[in-house]
Amino acid sequence: MRVVHIAYQQLRRYGKSRVSWARKLTQGLIKNDHFVEVFSDRDVAAFEAPFGIRDLGIGKSNKRLLETIDAVEPDLVIAGHCDIISNDTLKEIRRRHPKVVIAHCNNDPLFVPENVERIKHRAAVVDAVFVSTGSRELGIFEGLRARVYHMPNPVDPSIENLDNSIRNDLPIDLLFCSNATAHSKRLESVKWLKEKLDNECNFKIYGSFGEPPVWGREYDRVLAQTKMGLNFNRQEGYYWYSSARMAQLAGNGILQFTHRSNGFDELLPPESLVYFDEQEDLLARIREFNADNAKRQAWAARAREFFHAQMNSRLFAQYIVEASLQNTFSHDYFWARDIRPDERTN
């Protein structure tokens, strides 16, 4: 199959990039033997604009995408986080190529009102939408043109290539990385934990409280030293929603603590992620696993094995293709057992 994947490729970061689920999708598509042409809307806009001012290149980026589509003649267009590309351009793609299927992937949370509106906007013109929140929360998109599905955050063995579950020489006991503060009070919990654990373990925080964030190889090196991590979302309680942090930690064999209200205990195997309800509960669980290295290793290994076997980029990409084209599923995707590709989510 021929695929055009519209996704920000971070070209102007020149290697100092963030871990990207979009890159994992591209790699999964290629591993499944699809021809993939990637179009980085933001980078093209900047490269084509006078003086490199990206906003001046928006029109040119849309024009270049149409040129790319005409040249590639794809069977499937996947539009990720590409706000520079207008709905009118997607409509024009369909007019020029009536048989093409167009899907939108959105990995942002539904507790951000602007993102809900962004999804509704795309759903008015595409065939399928994939959202990183579980299907139980997707009723707000009923009645729109597109079929709406849940998608997980995948791992890729070339990116999540560590196995800290087998190591006993890791200097960082607990890790939290984030520089996002909007729509969230999670730093209050991080600060409270830091005060409680200050004399008990090496708790490293990056991107908050005056500590600079880490990207690219710096982030890789931090992960390579870490036993356990906090999987704090900006808000909790959204069914099967987590940031990509969950896959990054689990895929590298790093034990993670995540809030029970997100319902991942219904999705993932037991004794893989550590769930908590309240701060005191979390504190007790951190102390428990920090004192029991064998238990930490066993749980982290179970999570890593599951993510790499069942939540990898190859299966993720295969699912996106099959659901977009409404093909019968070729695999028992454990996150999609409540749907049939030829129907809307139940």
Structural write-up:
The chain has helices at residues 21-31, 41-48, 58-72, 87-96, 113-123, 186-197, 216-223, 245-251, 279-291, 293-310, 313-325, and strands spanning 2-6, 35-39, 76-79, 101-106, 128-131, 147-150, 172-177, 203-206, 226-231, 255-259, 274-276. The strands form two sheets. Strands 2-1-3-4-5-6 form a six-stranded parallel sheet, with helices on both faces. Strands 8-7-9-10-11 form a five-stranded parallel sheet, with helices on both faces. It is globular and about 65 Å long. 36% of the residues lie in helices and 15% in strands. It contains eleven helices and eleven strands. With 346 residues, the chain is of the alpha/beta class. The two termini are 28 Å apart. Helix 2 packs across helix 3, helix 3 (58-72) packs parallel to helix 4 and helix 8 (245-251) crosses helix 10 (293-310). The protein has two domains: 2-154 and 312-336, Glycogen Phosphorylase B (Rossmann fold, 3-Layer(aba) Sandwich), CATH 3.40.50; 164-310, Glycogen Phosphorylase B (Rossmann fold), CATH 3.40.50.2000.
Mean pLDDT: 94
Q: How many extended strands?
A: 11
Strand numbers in spatial order across the main sheet? 2-1-3-4-5-6
Name the beta content range: 15-25%
CATH architecture of the largest domain: 3-Layer(aba) Sandwich
Radius of gyration: 21 Å
Structural class: alpha/beta
Number of self-contained structural domains:
2
Name of the CATH class of the largest domain = Alpha Beta
Return residue spans where pLDDT drops below 50 for at least 5 consecutive residues. Answer: none
Quickly count the helices.
Answer: 11
